[in-house]
Design brief:
The complex is a heterodimer of chains A (235) and B (405). Chain A has 235 residues and is of the alpha/beta class. Chain A has helices at residues 47-54, 77-87, 103-114, 118-132, 147-160, 177-194, 205-210; strands spanning 3-14, 21-32, 36-40, 62-67, 70-71, 88-91, 165-169, 197-202, 213-218, 221-227. In chain A, the strands form two sheets. A six-stranded mixed beta sheet of chain A has the order 6-7-8-3-9-10, sandwiched between helices. Chain A is globular, with a radius of gyration of 17 Å. Chain B folds into two domains: 2-51 and 255-402, no CATH class; 70-215, Cathepsin D, subunit A, domain 1 (Beta Barrel), CATH 2.40.70. The longest helix of chain B is centred in the N-terminal third of the chain and has 41 residues, at 15-55. The chains are: A alpha/beta (235), B alpha+beta (405).
């Protein structure tokens, strides 16, 4: 199993000049291809900060992060944006979709940014909407979709660029039980059938239950890292 | 192309915000066009009043006449020169004049007056003198009659069809004296001219001043008042050194200075207007950036280059500003047109003050297309310059901070 994410002793420090606050403190983390990982921990433990660092949205103050062996911490901001576009899929807690575009257009948007031709885009849209089970909602605007349906479209959009992995920041936080369960089913299926790597930050017990690896963060440090089925990674 | 489509869709996402922005640009253009058009309209009307009323746009005299306006500084009527000048298509008409001072007398009352000998038909074509008539008939060539200003008539305590006597100095020191029946009374806006103007048919004036075939000036009317200086220079070349060709600006520098001063004041008013417009547009841009902070951060996070995001925001701004400008220009056309046909009319004491100085108490508009184009472009430019603000914000955008709840 190849390593997708390799974070070497990364730290993110706020308020460096006065009293330094370690949002992430000397974290060392490997994520392999095909993992279905949940980052858990109390509020302020550093889950979102770690996701931001892994996703190249923020840079660590110490250490480095490699994605498929490429050091993203050394990249220029523009290169990093392009890198994110081609290698990382994002699902956010809310306001995931562009409200003026239909579900189909939201998914197509990423591929337009990538410069993919119309035929290829169309084929991929069909596949993705079939996978998320929303073929009949392709032409609906986000406001015409339920929260769960919007998150499923967000997953389709995250996958549209054929990323190395998908980062999901509390994806079920605003969903009811049925919608959350449905979303997790889809993500688990994509993980199983297409070997897509998912990393969630979550408080949600339902997500933790379905994750095959659970990493617990407290005060910016990994306090436990448990693989449920096939792996157990020590930190 | 898809960026443009997305920009268009974004415009209709928050209809109120778009409508407010467009409305601020729309009213900015309308106000700006109106201010500019009224400003030019007032000055054009002022020039028209002054110029068409008496001086004409261009006058030709004997060299030195303007500095020493005496009958001896006159010239012989030249049909050759008239023809040469009229060959220039920009010159639409010429009228000859013989002007000098004389004493008007009736009974025991005597009053100094400006006697102007005119070709009644030609003069009327240029200054529309007949429209100033308030009693009696307009002058006719060859008649021994006078058209007297209302103020002068009152001062001489005369009435229409009474006879007055003119006494003065004629050409080359000759004595000028004559009796004339008052065939018409005219009223002039300028109190000064209204108290001392007296018109005679040209031939009659030449007889009075013993100056047969002699003129003191040619008054020229031109097609395009904006070309007055070019035409004046060309006419000077055509007329030769023995004549002096003067534009109205040279003859009445005080009017030109007045316009210049007022124009500077208007520029300040317009700058204040542009400033208000800028704040209006900037306010809506600030509102837009605050509302879309999360979304813009999210777009950069998922891989939209900042240059593309900037292009998207710029397209939105251009579409909004362009639409506002076009609507503003379209709306201002009928308003300006209406105000030209039905100018704002000043009433009361202010009107009296205007009329006392010979100006019509109205604020007409100018329908020159330059007002619509220039003001539209100016507001467009302001809008586009202000659109740099969102671009600046995008270049500094940090997706993590933008997406923080």
């Amino acid at each position: 199993m190849s390593t997708v994410i390799d974070a070497h002793n990364i730290s993110k420090i706020y308020n460096k000049e006065n009293i330094p606050v370690y949002a992430i403190n000397n974290v060392h983390l490997h994520i392999n291809q095909g993992e279905f990982t949940a980052l858990v921990g109390p509020s302020g433990s550093g889950k979102t900060t770690l996701l931001n660092l892994i996703g190249g949205l923020d840079k660590p103050d110490e250490g480095k992060i490699e994605i498929n062996g490429i050091d993203i911490t050394a990249m220029s901001p523009n290169k990093l944006i392009d890198f994110r576009l081609r290698n990382i899929g994002f699902v956010f807690q809310s306001f995931n979709l562009i409200p003026v575009l239909t579900a189909r257009e939201n998914v197509e948007f990423i591929m337009q940014l990538q410069g993919i031709n119309k035929t290829e885009r169309e084929a991929r849209i069909q596949t993705l909407f079939r996978q998320i089970g929303l073929e009949d909602k392709m032409d609906s605007r986000p406001s015409q979709l339920s929260g769960g349906q919007q998150q499923r479209v967000a997953v389709a959009r995250a996958l549209a660029s054929k990323p190395q992995f998908v980062l999901a920041d509390e994806p079920t936080a605003n969903l009811d039980t049925a919608s959350a369960s449905n979303l997790l089913d889809i993500m688990a299926l994509l993980n199983k059938e297409e070997n897509i790597t998912f990393i969630f930050s979550t408080h949600d017990a339902r997500v933790i239950e379905r994750a095959r690896r659970v990493i617990t963060l407290v005060d910016g440090r990994i306090t436990s890292d448990t693989a449920k089925v096939d792996t157990h990674v020590q930190h | 192309m898809w960026i443009l489509q997305l920009a268009w869709k974004n415009l209709w996402r928050n209809r109120n915000r778009t409508a407010i922005t467009m409305a601020s640009i729309f009213f900015a253009v309308v106000l700006s066009v109106l201010t500019s058009s009224i400003k030019t309209g007032i000055f054009d009307n002022l020039i028209k009043n002054v110029v068409s009323f008496y001086s004409g746009y261009i006058q030709i005299h004997k060299q030195g006449y303007w500095d020493e306006q005496i009958l001896d500084n006159s010239f012989e009527n030249s049909t050759v020169l008239e023809r040469k000048l009229l060959n220039d298509p920009r010159i639409t008409d010429i009228t000859p004049r013989l002007e000098s001072f004389a004493l008007a007398s009736a009974g025991n009352i005597t009053k100094g007056c400006l006697v102007v000998g005119i070709d009644p038909q030609k003069e009327d074509r240029i200054t529309r003198l007949s429209t100033k008539l308030i009693a009696g008939k307009y002058l006719q060539a060859g008649h021994n009659t006078a058209l007297v200003s209302e103020g002068l008539l009152k001062r001489l305590q005369l009435q229409l069809y009474d006879t007055l006597v003119l006494i003065g100095q004629g050409y080359h020191g000759a004595t000028a004296a004559g009796k004339y029946v008052i065939s018409g009374v005219a009223k002039f806006g300028s109190p000064d001219l209204n108290d001392r103007l007296l018109y005679l048919p040209l031939g009659t004036a030449q007889v009075l001043f013993e100056a047969p075939g002699i003129l003191t000036s040619y008054v020229l009317s031109i097609q395009d008042p904006k070309q007055v200086n070019t035409i004046s220079t060309d006419a000077q070349q055509l007329a030769g050194k023995e004549y002096e060709v003067m534009s109205w600006e040279q003859m009445m520098p005080d009017i030109k200075q007045h316009i210049k001063t007022d124009s500077s004041n208007m520029v300040v008013i317009q700058l204040i207007l542009y400033l208000l417009i800028s704040f209006g547009i900037f306010g809506t841009l600030l509102m837009m950036m605050a509302e879309r902070r999360f979304e813009l951060g999210m777009l950069v996070a998922i891989g939209m280059r900042k240059s593309k995001l900037a292009l998207l925001l710029l397209s939105e701004s251009i579409l909004t500003v362009l639409a506002g400008c076009l609507l503003g220009i379209l709306a201002s056309i009928p308003i300006v047109w209406y105000l030209q046909k039905h100018p704002i009319r000043i009433t009361g004491n202010a009107a009296k003050a205007y009329e006392r100085f010979g100006f019509e108490a109205i604020f007409p508009t100018s329908t020159d297309s330059a007002h619509f184009i220039n003001q539209g472009l100016m507001v467009l430019l302001i809008g586009l310059v202000l659109s740099l603000y969102p671009l600046l914000k995008v270049t500094r955008l940090n997706p993590v901070i933008s997406m923080k709840k």
